[in-house]
Amino acid sequence: MPSARTAMMTSDTITGPLAATEFIRRVQDHEVDLLIGTQMIAKGHHFPMLTLVGVVDADLGLHGGDLRATERTYQLLHQVSGGLVAPAARAASCCRPSSPAIPSCRRW
To answer: Judging by DSSP bridges, how do beta strands 52-55 and 6-9 pair with one another?
Structure first.
């Protein structure tokens, strides 16, 4: 996709409320074809024009000692699949597909 207009949403690129507002405006005004971001892109945003969502290392949060890691991973995947776009194609890459969080999201 060499001609795609890209935008990145991370804590390094969105430095405050004004930057977040401008980013969201650009997406809503169809000035962005490809979004790249961290968990922050899935939190409370609705971008109905998106047609594909990909989550790389979807189970990365499962590799620590947090007792709620499965729940947090499921919540993130659910937010991305439900609140961010609908309807859309969805894909996730992971190392531990047998974790309860991953199969639960297959109902996307």
So the answer is: unpaired
Would you say residue 56 has pLDDT above 80? Answer: no
Domain of residue 90: give its range. 6-107
CATH code at 51?
3.40.50.300
> How far does Cα 38 stand from its chain's mean position?
7
Q: What is the pLDDT of residues 74-96, one digit of tens each?
A: 887 777 766 554 555 666 666 66
Task: Give me the DSSP letters along 27-85.
Answer: HHTT--SEEEE-GGGGSS---TT--EEEETTTTGGGGSS-TTHHHHHHHHHHIIIIII-
Q: Of 4, 102, 22, nearest to 62 (Cα)?
A: 102
Q: Does the residue 39 lie in any domain?
A: yes
Residue 108: pLDDT above 70? no
Q: Structurally, how many domains does the chain consist of? A: 1
